Amino acid sequence: MGQLKEECGVFGIYSPSLVDVSSACYHALYALQHRGQEGCGICFNADGKLTVQKNVGLVVDVFQGPPSVGEIRPTMAISHNRYGTTGERSPENVQPILIHHQLGSLSIAHNGNLTNDVLLRSQLEMKGSIFHSSSDTEVIAHVLTSHRLSSATLEEALVKTMKEIEGAYSLMVMSEDKLIAVRDPFGFRPLCLGKIEDGYVFASESCALDTVGAQFIRDIEPGEICIVDKKDGSIHSNKTYCKTKPSSLCVFELIYFSRPDSIVDTISVHQARMRSGAFLALEHPAQADVVIGVPDSGIDAAIGYSRQSGIPYEMGFVKNKYIGRTFIQPAQGQRENTVRIKLNPISSTVRGKRVVLIDDSIVRGTTSRRIVRLLREAGAKEVHMRSSAPKFLFPCFYGLDIDSKKDLFACKYSEEEMKEILDVDSLGFLYPEQVVKLSDHPGTGFCTACFTGNYPCPKRGV
């Protein structure tokens, strides 16, 4: 079966008495909706009984308000927003997944992509494991349960599991009496910890903590297993795998995926994007009258470009707020059709003017071409396009929907050809050596494999 490439959102909460767990999960999923729009789900823990509610669709479609949880109030829960690839839109692949075995029940929610899931799946199937989905999350579940049967504790089983699984994973694991957050040793995907009333919360991004009224405590360290014990409300960490691999946060979290009001590994996403725009202004200056950004993730970089260059920034597009994000639409045809109703240029901003257009990235080129056409039709005299990401030249194995070079715009065409296809007067990409400077915190490392081909963790097949 084909594997899933996921850039999802996870959330977990423990609150024994003061917080409405169902409502908190619902609102947290709303805050993380930008990370996945194909499906969502919540698994509740009420007196040790685990039940899951999930389906394909947006949060508002699946739940239509905080879900009803029956007479027994849950004290723990984990939840998930899913982003998957073409052909994998099915209820079986929606998370969290729930497993029942002889030592109890487990639920798992996963953000990331394993690099050795094909190998592990083959080995597990040869030993008799039966899979019900094509998700690599189910591979993790099988590995974990196999170790759980031979381990004294769930924590010990997770340590053994992390020795086997490779690649990107930020996990929420819930048993009958524990809520556990796990982050892979490279730290590809973000995960943070917060305090709420009488309990704790974990989330892919700090914006979800803000939404439920939780206080941000810290980021989960790469390689850390952070455990909340329902029995006494205590929290502790296992750091067996911390500092065993180079820090490799996916830099696309800062460029595109994360919300600008989030803090990821101590980095303000908003400030990082403005910094990328400033770098672009220095690397690729333009004689222009106005700077505009493509909503939403291009706006911060456009402000940074404007401040550095001295060219005024103005709002260039109005975005239909009820249309989802284009890059994570699963099919190319859907992406192109969505652009037609997603953005509308403000003619008074661009008519007769030389425009610097800032977008977060140019991956396949089709969306960018359509956006430039909108500006030309609105009367722009010149369009100078700038990408706050470097050229995408290599596939990603850690969660972006870029599994080969064949559809990558910068792989297929020279820069002059790209200019002609996009119909722009000039074109500039952020230099790869600058992208690692988006953080002002020393010691923060990034994965830039999709730009450079330098993979922190290799892909392994059967």
Overview of this structure, please?
This protein has 16 helices and 23 strands. It has 462 residues and is of the alpha+beta class. It folds into 2 domains: 9-245, Aminohydrolase, N-terminal nucleophile (Ntn) domain (Glutamine Phosphoribosylpyrophosphate, subunit 1, domain 1, 4-Layer Sandwich); 254-452, 3-Layer(aba) Sandwich (Rossmann fold). The strands form 6 sheets. The protein has a 7-stranded antiparallel beta sheet. Helix 12 (366-377) links the parallel strand 20 and strand 21. The two termini are 13 Å apart.
Helix content: 25-40%
Number of domains: 2
Strand segment count: 23
Average pLDDT level: 91
Beta-strand share of residues: 25-35%
Taking pLDDT < 50 over at least 5 consecutive residues as the criterion, the unreliable ranges are 1-6
CATH class wording of the largest domain: Alpha Beta
Structural class of the helices, strands and pairings? alpha+beta
> Tell me about the biggest sheet?
7 strands, antiparallel
Tell me, briefly, the overall form.
globular
State the strand order across the main sheet: 3-2-4-1-10-9-11
The total count of helices amounts to 16
Distance between the termini: 13 Å
Give keywords.
2 domains; 462 residues; 6-stranded antiparallel sheet; Glutamine Phosphoribosylpyrophosphate, subunit 1, domain 1; Rossmann fold; 23 strands; 7-stranded antiparallel sheet; alpha+beta; 16 helices
